[in-house]
Amino acid sequence: MINLHQWFAQKSNPAPGALNSTTSPLGIGYDPIDVTNYFNGSLDEVQIYNVALSGDEVAALYLLQSAAPAEVDTIAPSVPLNLAASVAFTEVALSWLPSTDNLGVTGYNVYKSDTLMTSVSSTNALLKGLRANTKFQFGVSAFDAAGNESQKSTLEVTSGQEQSKTPFLLLILRT
Q1: What gap in Å lies between CA 62 and CA 54, rounded to an integer?
Q2: Nearest Cα to Cα of residue 132 among 94, 158, 165
Q3: Is the dihedral of CA 37, 39, 43, 46 positive or negative?
Q4: pLDDT tens-digit series, residues 92-103
Q5: Which of 105, 102, 89 is nearest to 147 (CA)?
Q6: How far is residue 151 CA from its own chain's centroid?
C-alpha cells in the first residue's frame, strides 16, 4: 500500500484559501516540478482526510497499517477416526486416532448421546458411573482454538454389570 498521507504530510504546505480546480489527473508519487517518482501500479486502499495529519498521526497510522492482519480460522478439524471402546463394569474407556487441522487441534469433545460429557486434550477418555447393562451412543469431535468443531465420530456401547461391592469367599472342601 502506498501511504499518500505520508507524502502529503511531508511534501505539501498548507495553502491558504480554497483550492483551485484542475483538469490534471491525480499523480500518485508524482512530482510535477521535476517530473520524477511516477507510480505505475495499483492500490488496495485509499484514505482521504479533510485535514493534514501531523507527523505523529502519520506514524501511528503507518504502524497500525503495517501490522499483519490476524489470520481468521474457519476450517474445522478432521473427524476423529477409529473410535473404539472397552468396557469394565460401568466404566467405558474411549480411544480414537488424532484429528488434523490447518492450524492445530486444541482438544476433543466427548458426548453421551447429544450431551457433552467432557473435553480432553488427549485421544482417550474414561467415563465412569454409567448405568449398568445399558446401551449408550458415544460421540467424539475435535475442536481448534478458533472454536471450529468437527463432525462427531460415534459408537454404540453397552455398559457392563455393576461391580460387586461384597467380596465373596470360595471354599473348596475335600472329603
Answers
A1: 12
A2: 158
A3: positive
A4: 999 999 999 999
A5: 105
A6: 16
